[in-house]
Amino acid sequence: MSKHKLIYQIYPSAVGDLRDIAAIIPRIAEKLHPDYIWLNPFFESPWVDGGYDVKDYCKIATRFGKLKDFEYLVKVAKKYNIGILIDLVINHTSIEHEWFKKSVLHDPIYKDYYVWLDKPLNWQSFFGGPAFDYSPLRDKYYLHLYDKNQPDLNWNNPRVLKEFQKIIDFWVKAGAAGFRVDSANVLAESDLKHGRIPGLPGFFEYYQKPQTVKVLEKLFSRKDIYTIAEPVGGEFYSKRKFHELTNKAFSASFNVGTLDVADSFFSTKDRVYPVKYRRWLKKLSKWAPEEKFSIAFESHDAPRAVSRFNTDPRLLAMLQFLLPSYNPCIYQGQELGVENAELSNNIEDYPGVQSRQVYRRLRRKGKSVAEAMKVVKMTSRDNARQPIDWGEYILQGNREESVLSFYERIIRLWREDMVIAEGDLKVKKITRAGVFDFERNYKGKTYKVHIDFTRKTPSTLMDDKGEVVIRVK
Ligand code: NOJ
Hints:
Elements: E1 7-10, H1 18-32, E2 36-39, E3 43-44, E4 56-60, H2 67-79, E5 83-89, H3 98-104, E6 116-117, E7 132-135, E8 140-143, H4 158-173, E9 178-182, H5 210-220, E10 226-229, H6 240-245, E11 252-253, H7 277-287, E12 294-296, H8 305-309, H9 313-322, E13 327-331, H10 353-364, H11 369-379, H12 392-397, H13 403-416, H14 418-422, E14 424-430, E15 435-442, E16 445-452, E17 459-462, E18 468-472
Parallel strand pairs: 1-2, 1-13, 2-5, 5-9, 9-10, 10-11, 12-13
Antiparallel strand pairs: 3-4, 6-8, 7-8, 14-15, 15-16, 16-17, 17-18
């Protein structure tokens, strides 16, 4: 079995229900042949954080359909040799989850399902603001690394582990081929103290403990599923340590850092930073040969890459598929060159919790509505969460010079050409402005790649005979 797995990410609410998703699979399969489709959460949820606040892990939200629709989707995908990956949110639930409602009431079984403290710590949540909230009913503080509607589970409680083992079994039985595991490195908090680094979530000092690794192994070290973990947390998420630690638990690791190391676009930021090409390309070339790392330039957590980098989408495709790339992830629409959405100037129209928090923070800092909205519009995750025109598959599919046809071609090379698939990487040049020259070497054959983000020269792939295989002007 090939080590190379192509993952295609679908954000369900931007497409429709599970039957609508099933209907677009043949188009995606015919052009890109992904090995897996990762679906963002489609479970019952109050939708405070785009479904990452789960109310019931085994119930599909009504608007997406029923279990039989999921089974149908699996069947369609299987016809094209595609496995469906479920997004498993294991760090936290929704505040509306039965477990939390009972935990608040000090129910003897559920009281320790979450992280409760008598006094809050000085931790900051990922979305800004304190990471502890007071519950008058329980007269204690609960931890939420994300929004206060997303209480953190207590992974020191073996009952929580059992619950998730049941959930995993449920979805595997329903036909899931594996899981994308949300916020996988920040579980199992115990013996918590104030954070040492002001302004950062204090858990940085607690994460990736042997305890976390043990939990993850118990949940995921099984041969019958593909699993891709998502470690989170500033500069930390790119650390090799987590990937090494969880070697047994996970098939691959979603390297958020590859989106853009400097986080220049990231929706938690209060202003837009320029892309730091040299730093990004250097890190990419270091990470790329790692078999378990993913390379992704887009996701539901970032604005569209074409807009962030203000570039030709084909240059990004060259980078993603001509570097060694074992688990590349494509986010729906990336292969069509989709740009940022035209978002509203009214913050009330933004469903994403993060955009609203950035907006409030900027307003508190004294920015005008217009200034705050300018930042929100450029950084919002909602940019990538809009419906796209799937008819483009037909239009672009028929045009040889289209972005989609380019993706089709480069993915075929990535799969079939041994130099691209297996060759060693030799970096020749990286400039601050974004010129990147590298070679791929395999059994005496050398390919030369030149990618120029300044677009002053054509970007090219040259094979061992000196012939230009790919050229983007
Ligand atoms: C990471 C997910 O990708 C993001 O969308 C979500 O807000 C957080 N985890 C919390 O679950």
